[in-house]
Amino acid sequence: xxxxxxxxxxxxxxxxxxxxxxxxxxxxxxxxxxxxxxxxxxxxxxxxxxxxxxxxxxxxxxxxxxxxxxxxxxxxxxxxxxxxxxxxxxxxxxxxxxxxxxxxxxxxxxxxxxxxxxxxxxxxxxxxxxxxxxxxxxxxxxxxxxxxxxxxxxxxxxxxxxxxxxxxxxxxxxxxxxxxxxxxxxxxxxxxxxxxxxxxxxxxxxxxxxxxxxxxxxxxxxxxxxxxxxxxxxxxxxxxxxxxxxxxxxxxxxxxxxxxxxxxxxxxxxxxxxxxxxxxxxxxxxxxxxxxxxxxxxxxxxxxxxxxxxxxxxxxxxxxxxxxxxxxxxxxxxxxxxxxxxxxxxxxxxxxxxxxxxxxxxxxx
Length: 365
Hints:
Layout: H1 6-18, E1 23-29, E2 36-42, E3 60-61, H2 64-67, E4 71-75, E5 86-88, E6 91-97, H3 102-107, H4 112-123, E7 127-132, H5 135-154, H6 163-173, E8 174-181, E9 184-194, E10 197-205, H7 213-233, E11 238-245, H8 251-259, E12 262-265, E13 272-276, H9 281-287, E14 290-292, E15 298-304, H10 313-320, E16 328-335, H11 342-355, E17 359-364
Parallel strand pairs: 2-4, 10-11, 15-16, 16-17
Antiparallel strand pairs: 1-2, 1-3, 4-13, 5-13, 6-11, 6-12, 7-8, 8-9, 9-10, 14-15
Helix pairs in contact: 4-7, 5-6, 10-11
């Protein structure tokens, strides 16, 4: 039987299931496309959610996905005896190293627009912040800023940690930071002590923040500036900003990259093995560019397919600049576009310009 045959993939998956692994079949549409997508996931059920990032909207369990999967995801240390298997951490922790001064911290921010917002807030006398380690402060933050904001932005199904659990963490070492604008509380955060500094665990904003992206961006800058200042006051070495998906164009990843974070494999999140049907790889990695490999040797896998939208070099660079984070040492491009096609020529030139001295490897599907 030829390598890559769907029946062979299904057989490998069933062998893994017989070894005691949990086995799931997921079907839906590939993110950002109309391409049907069938995924077989083998591993702990609690980690199945990592596959949701590959889908456009909702997915559904379907046995047919196991018979000829487009994508096979197997949690380590279970073996995946296939050619073309990639290993990655589905989730990454974002860590912000604290600079010697607040101005140096602002200079370390990778987004020029966000640096302008931070400096504007720092000059504004209408902004102020306070900090408290009292249980009443945490309860007020939870009930007035955090829970209403999370439910309004992400829906009632969003998982929210219980107030009791947060109070227990506060008792072990933590504080509530509240930012005011002209004397009115507009946003805040719960931060907890770590051996290296602070864990920026969760935030909250007054609900009128959601009415205007500009207002939300301004208040986000005010909150982050206050965290910078608090970290300096407490002589913290790092601020832990939580985890994000290893999807390099994800909104959460993008903001943390712009803030100046470095990325490491998430604590408590195991590594996975990923196999994608060869002819689907250009379209798959164009839809979901992923950070692969171990920490310190990250590489970005991105795709360019025949149906990719033609963009100018400026447009490509704006999209690809996210790839140039310090931990990434090269990019791997999966493509089915001929080398002389103007689409590929423009893409490759833009990618190399965005990555600087980092290497680029082209893999033709």
